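Much of our argument rests on the idea that a fold can be written as discrete symbols. Part of our work consisted of pairing the sequence of a single chain with a tokenised description of its backbone. We regard such an encoding as a compact summary of how the chain folds. The amino acid sequence and the backbone structure tokens for this protein are reproduced below.
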Amino acid sequence: MRHAIIKKGFMLFSAIFFAGLAHAASPEVTMPKTFTICTDTNFQFPFSFMKNQHPVGLHIDIIDAALKSLGIEPIYEPTTWSSCLNRAKAGSVDSVATAAYMDERALYLYYPMDANNDNKSSWRITQVEYKVISKRLDPNGQPNTYAFDGNIANLPEPIHVPAGYFIVHDLQKARLKVKEGQTSLENFQDLLDDKSGSLIDLAEVAQHLSLEPAFKNQFYIHKQPLVVKSYYLAFSKGGHLNLAQAQQVWDAIAKVRDDKALMAAFLKKY
């Protein structure tokens, strides 16, 4: 009995000792003082949009708070989304804000380990819904009877989508006619001018723009989401941060996002 107790005690001591040794042996991650973040100049209210030539919005607030907790000063470089992705591919920016996961993007971007599935990621900035928008009246001036039922094959064509967004690939794969506009505002105007078609955009953007005087009572936002995606601060594999450093940032983002009081304060601004 005494031998068994001594043996168990030794095993417990060994486990604690070697665990501590392993922890002590793991090198600390040294974080940079600053890095570049490419942002989309498209209007993505309330997540990311331009104000006085600077990116603002809920996603920017979360990133700023997370980086501040790590002692990092971000350098934002706003441009079109297609240009952001090309620059990340070339390694001329360190990160892009904010990106949904795509296999082809993962060839040149670091994503959190759980990003390549349809579940809500632990390291997301936020979860975002894309909605289908159609005109209230058909080409004959009659009430539009189209109702989105989840089947993308039945989407009225052409389908207006912001240029470079992940959903473009899915629609083109389904052999649907897609028209890419540089901004959401441009897409709404084009759909208004077209005799037929539909539009896909963020739920919040659709709600905001549909209240603009030029668009009021012109569009119907369908209740069923087309898709729901986690959005991330993704890091260029050709940039200055490695995967371990990126993980430190994602951990900090998760802490900010899960702080209900802080998030409520952010949302009050929009």
